[in-house]
Amino acid sequence: MSSYTDTVNCMLQHPAGIDKIAALIVNVARLNPVASKANSELVSMLNEFRCILRLPGLYKLLVNFDRRDSLESHLSTAINVCYYLTEGLAFLGNKQIVPMSKTREDQLSLISCRFWLLDTLLTVYQLYKKVRNTHDRQDELDLAANVASLPLCIHWSIGSGLGLSKQQIGILGLFSTVVQVRKLLRALNDKKQ
C-alpha cells in the first residue's frame, strides 16, 4: 500500500501527474454506458481543470524555446503555442472572462483541436522515424498511444465528430493515458534516483 500511496503522492506534486490522474478519471468515467448527470458533470469539471493545468505549458514552451533546435522542433513548438492559446481563449470565453460570442468560442475550440491533431500527426511521424531505427519499447508505446489519439483528435477537429461513442472515446483515451502515466512514472522514478 505504501508504494501505491508514494506513487500517487509523487504524481500529485507535478502538474503533469495531476493532469494524468484527472485524465484517467475522465476516461474511466466515459466507459460507463449509463452516463448520469453527475458523471457528465465530473467529466466536464475535470476537462476544465486539465485545460487550466495546460495554461502554464504555454509559458514553458516559450521559455524553453531554443533557436538552435531542429525545424521539426520549431514546428512542434509553434503548433503547441497555437493549440494552448486557442484552447485557453475558448476556455476563458466560456467562463466569460474574455468577452466573446458562443460562435467565436466554438470556433476557437475547434481550431485548438485541429492544432492538437497537427501536433499528434507530427509526433506520430517523429516517433515512427525513431522506432524504425531504434526499436525502443517506450518509443513503440508512445507511438501506439499517439496513433490511438488520432481518432480522438479527428473526432473533435470536425464539427460533427466521427460518430465515436463515449465508450469508444474512453477506451482510446484510457489507452493513451495509461501509456503516458507509465512514461511519467518512469521519469519521476529516474529523478528520485
Write out key terms for the chains shown.
193 residues; mainly alpha; 7 helices; 82% helix; 0% strand; Fungal protein
Structure commentary:
- By secondary structure, the chain is mostly helical.
- It has one domain.
- Helix content is 82%, strand content 0%.
- The chain has helices at residues 2-12, 15-30, 37-63, 71-94, 102-134, 137-157, 166-192.
- Helix 6 (137-157) packs antiparallel against helix 7 (166-192).
- The protein is globular and about 45 Å long.
- The model has no long low-confidence stretch (mean pLDDT 88).
Radius of gyration, whole Å:
17 Å
Assembly state (oligomeric) = single chain
Name the helicity range: over 70%
Low-pLDDT residue intervals, each spanning 5 or more residues: none
Protein name: Fungal protein
